[in-house]
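Cont'd.
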Amino acid sequence: MASYIGTPTSRIDGLAKVTGAAKYAGEIEAPNLAYGSVVASTVAKGRIVSIDMSQALNVSGVIAVLTHKNRPPMARTDRAYMDDIAPERGSPFRPLYDDKIRFSRQPIALVLAEDEETARYAASLVRVDYEEEAHDTDLHRQRDGAKAIKTPPKPRGKADKALSTAEVRHQGEYYIPPEHHNPMELFASTVIWNEDGKLTLYDKTQGVQNVQRYICNIFNMDADDVRVVSPYVGGAFGSGLRPQYQAALAVLAARALRRSVRLVLRRQQMYTLGFRPGTIERLALGARSDGTLDAITHEAIATTSRYEDFARNDTGWSGALYKCANTKYSHKLAKLDLATPCDMRAPGAASGVYALECAMDELAVALKLDPLQLRIRNYSELEQNDNVPYTSKQLRECYRQGAEAFGWDKRKAEPRSMRDGRELVGWGMATGVWEALQMKTAARITLTANGHAEVACATSDIGTGTYTIMAQVAADMLGLPLDSISIKLGDSSLPQSPVEGGSWMAASVSHAIAVTAEAVRKQLFNLASKIPGSPLGDARLDDVSLVEGKIVSRRDPGRAVSIADAMRSGGIDRIEQEKFTNFKDDSRHARNTHSAVFAEVKIDEQIGVIRVTRVVSAVAAGRILNTKTAHSQIMGSVVWGIGMALHEETLLDHNFGRIMNASLGEYHVPVNADVHDIKVIFVDEQDDIINPLGIKGVGEIGIVGVAAAIANAVYHATGKRIRDLPITLDKLQL
Ligand code: MOS
């Protein structure tokens, strides 16, 4: 049987994207649009005393200036502002709600005008008086006041005692700075106002139904009154999981003006949203002299805002990844006068595993053991935090295939022992781990007599390739060619979907499609078997498959009924089925993806310039639905890992409590010249337990471990250990 699942398939939305036919939230055309521009607070903490909008209102073309004083009503309870992804504890930010300033560049007014340039110019004329309060945005200054939260897994054994008696120890403190998502597409909303007060909100988001619920809750509207649409998303990486303030402001404005409104954030304003929290990670490892781990303690001190407790699992990976009898974790939050942090690709793991994997490298040095050997010596077949086996775990094979592709066996152990002309050469490695989650998701299939199927689900495609994998799965399940499938997604009116995040969407939506296709097969079989003299008259449901537009007997492929004939006999021209899949909560297994990352750096000995010349990432992530888009996911993540290691850092001026480098000119991300050879290997990993198709999902796994592999390579090249990211020339000082 022809199979699309597993084949390298180009994006079915690729042509629309490269030709510009794909329209994004900020470019939807509508008659009589008003344009918004956000006025931002210039202080980090305090309250607004007065806003003088007279000059702005005098500009020709300005329609209105909205503030907390004159806006339409909004909900008064925290509950109303808590979207699906909101932290459990806290009081979510409410845009233009009151006079309180919680972070620098907080939106405090919205200027609306007949065109974007006028709105922007007029926004610069709004004058605000503040009553300032003392602020603190410095994690290092607040670290001692950080409060422990309950999130980390339970300890086991006696970690402190095992550490004190260990034959070899390593302790270290690692720092991951705050980092901002920099998707190509700016956050944007276009609200289409209908005379009956109903709205269509074109929004940049990872979850249309999450945004729909949020908007309904904060403006006291019915689900029927708000449709949220987001067919294309130009990258988000977690920044679009929670509804962002431009969506609320655009709806607020449309309701105030009774008119359609567009609001696009500027690049600088993208730095007023959530971010990867700056985190201090303290690791202590104890081992016997043969390299057997005996103690791990991992403490994270992470940034959150004053008004919400944002926390992810940074530390628990440490006691899960390697066999170790005595482990202890703690996660503390330091409240700073910043916006609440949010998820950024592999939240928690990207930071915590960076620290763990650097610490393991340092322990290997102390033990005089090859760092790969140290990992293999402490390999764990069980997830020890919960003491359960994995649904599948081919990490050992990742190590083997990754090392072989990289040529790890030619590594000389001694730092500064490898060079290439004027450049020092360093080889480092690290392990990566992420979750293989799956969420309740629905799909609708509409199959017409001509053999075309439309498959619909409210999920987003944030650029990962969801359109394409949905079509591949549907084509296989329905026995139709790929180009007979069309996909509808990114619309709150479609069947239920969670936000697209956590790398859970591929497994979730694929199974929603599979169970729905099964219902279609059943209905077709019933129709086919009722045809007088049907070749499938004595067949049973279990005996037939959908192949090449027909319902076919598995025992005798000569016996078949076409989809068209089956529908004709039933007097119908289409079949529509909608089902959802709910995954069983299996607490007897751990579900994870794994990777082994190998990196080569070359460092100019005089200047200290670091080049990441090679990366090999070997990934075990169950069945890979589309080796082409999955490869792109991992390659993109590796590039981001290079950025995390060498470039990315949101810099704060603590005097003003303000981000200093809020632009792509000064917030550095890797460019083409920084990216060299990246090899991605997908290790075979059959998984019969996790779900019927054996899918785990990729994306986030690609970044975990990359920065550590590079940091370890830098040490190997130079003999200098830099624990604070990013590793810049000033820190290296050769
Ligand atoms: Mo991802 S950080 O869950 O979008």
